[in-house]
Amino acid sequence: EINAAMDTMTSTTDLIFVYVKNGQPEEATRYMATMGRTFGQVLDEIAKSEAVIRGIQSENFQAQLGDAGKLGRFEYLIGGVIFVVVILVVLYGHRMQKVMAAGEAERLRLIAALKASEATAQSRLHDAIESMNGGFVLYDGDDRLAMCNENYRKMYPETRDLNVAGTKFEDLIRTDVARGQVPEAMGREEQWLAERVRIHLSD
Questions:
Q1: Fewest 10 Å CB contacts: which of 113, 180, 183, 194?
Q2: Can you point out the beta strands (E) in the chain?
Q3: Is the pLDDT of residue 70 over 60?
Q4: Torsion of CA 46, 47, 50, 51, to 10 degrees
């Protein structure tokens, strides 16, 4: 309706200019009065349109407020869930710390118990070896002296300084030869050493 009224006003304006140009002021005045009424109609239609627009805007605004309220409640819900999750994580973290601390304490206790048990076993083994009447010597997988008793050391006083853990058997007998403790090896030292090592390894 506004567009129709605006078209009418445009046509009337064109006629008024034509009458004024042709020297017909009476006709121009009559159409000017008509144009005034049409302008009033345009204003009325504009006012109606503004009222409709305000109504639509109000409805949209209320809908937006409702959506905002829902969104706000949803955000509060999310915030609450996050808060609960954080609390649970903190509590779980404290619990895990306690469990880990207890586990570490138990691990250290077991290690201490194993060391004490090992020390006790070593002490008993040492006592048993030392209580033997004869000499006792033990070599490990690399043919190094692992342990021997005092009676064994007394049997070989010349190499007593080498009768300690870690000494290789070949180094031990080679020292014996070098110190003149093996008369049968004189003049054939390397051959004797090779034979002695072979016999030792085959035992």
A1: 183
A2: 137-139, 145-148
A3: no
A4: -140
Contact 15, 38 (CB under 8 A): no
**Alpha-carbon distance 112 to 87, whole Å?**
37
The amino acid sitting at 153 is R
pLDDT digits (tens, 9 = 90+) for 125-137: 888 888 888 889 9
3-class secondary structure, 168: strand
- Per the CB < 8 A criterion, the answer to whether 8 and 38 are in contact is yes
Q: Please name the residues in contact with 166: beta carbons below 8 A apart, sequence gap of 6 or more.
A: 144, 145
Cα angle for residues 21, 24, 30 (degrees, 5° grid): 115
* Six-digit token string for 131: 């209580």
Cα separation, 41 vs 33, whole angstroms: 13
